[in-house]
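Hi there, hope your week has been kind to you so far. Thanks so much in advance, here it is.
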Amino acid sequence: MAFSIRLTENEKKLADSYAKLHSLSLGEAFKQALFEKIEEEYDIAVFDEAYKEYQDSKESRPIDELWQELDI
């Protein structure tokens, strides 16, 4: 899927500089930034849900139990 976006000249210069700094094409830089943002927002949503569950139940357990459960 292809798409286009409109950038001001300053935005384009900034995006080009970022892409060049990270040895990416402009398209790859935007794609990477988009998916990093999606992942970050997903992680925040999962945390918020887990924290709400904790606040509602007020149950917790020692961290050692979690490590054992995860076999760490």
About this structure: The chain has a mean pLDDT of 94.
